[in-house]
């Protein structure tokens, strides 16, 4: 096997400084539009839901308003459930799956749960099809005090009053082929470490919280999603993306300790979805539908359990 080529920015073994980050940022270009793809769909939801701006990202010359959508029949006696998408902006079905849930399925939960949905946490990354923000910071490792990512800080400020009230949080993500061709090599170069090639799983999987696992909750989601798209099998080592598979299509991470979005509240039930959009066995429509199925199954499980 040939050795991977060095990443074109920086010096191998040396962490990036300001010059390397600026060089990387200069190479990022807008490939799609938040104000065209996302904001009109959010605006259309105003007829049915409360839409609130919870922050704004000022990345000159671009400005990105951040929106949260919640159902109007908010009732403190009902369980509160949280859906986040686009924490990694390049993960398309995370954004469009969250919007599709609101457009097609969320109405069924009126009077049964308080829904709060943040469909696009990282619009700069959405437009440039990248997982980082302009400072080469990964928002999904930044949900902690004194966050270096404005995207994460805005979410945490919004959720602070609700942190103890949220009973379920599902964070919508994708694992793509570009994780191995671009994003993990860039991460290794940024941090001045050797890049170790990995293996992209073919199919949908979930990331549970290793510090407070809820295996039955995860399996309820898997059972619903496998009606829409295929579930990622474990590899020859019994792993999915380098972590042991603890059940069919499920791995575990310490969500809060890693600063992951799914650990941002005290929710008892939490998970991260991972759709594989590059599979020859999945279409973009299936990927969005898989995210919707996962959200509905998660809420249904919680409503039955509480």
From TrEMBL:
One of its GO terms (molecular function) is hydrolase activity, acting on ester bonds. The keyword Flavoprotein does not apply. Residues 30-306 form the Peptidase M14 domain. Pfam families: AstE_AspA_cat (PF24827). Keywords: Hydrolase, Metal-binding, Zinc. Belongs to the peptidase M14 family. This is M14 family metallocarboxypeptidase. It comes from Solimonas marina.
